[in-house]
């Protein structure tokens, strides 16, 4: 697994040991970043369920101003921290939050943090997605034209609206689907 484009192109990332992580395939990462390319320059990026950090660190390599990576699993989080330090040794632009995803999002909302791009890659299964449908208003994490992206199994039906956001497009890549959402106010 390596960074595919940008300042750190070719940099190999460490993979977490064991079977608990499901890294995003490079062809899906490439497709995602082809879609996001016009929005990456100087963007603030949040990667929830970051795993090894391949998505968030790719975003940083491709020009994002800041990246926040959230990972709860302690072993995976250790690998994530090592990967993040390789790209940002001073930890001024890449932040790792060792926290449960829901708790981290709640804290970010309380701090009134705003992001241009928010990426969620929860464990596959509709239950993981449905827990985000209600509760926190995820739209409040987004800047006015921000996007929220959920990576999920193509078998998992995702709602048209979710936590203050409306789905604006979907892209399928084999078993994996990327669902793109924007704040409901910006889609009407």
Descriptive notes:
The structure is a single chain. By secondary structure, the chain is of the alpha/beta class. It has one domain (26-187): 3-Layer(aba) Sandwich (Rossmann fold), CATH 3.40.50. The protein is built from six helices and eight strands. The protein has helices at residues 26-40, 54-61, 74-87, 101-110, 126-133, 184-187; strands at residues 44-48, 66-71, 94-98, 115-120, 142-153, 161-162, 165-173, 176-183. It has an eight-stranded mixed beta sheet with strand order 3-2-1-4-5-8-7-6, with helices on both faces. Helix 3 (74-87) links the parallel strand 2 (66-71) and strand 3. The radius of gyration is 15 Å and the shape is globular. It starts with 25 loop residues before the first helix and ends with a helix. The model has no long low-confidence stretch (mean pLDDT 87).
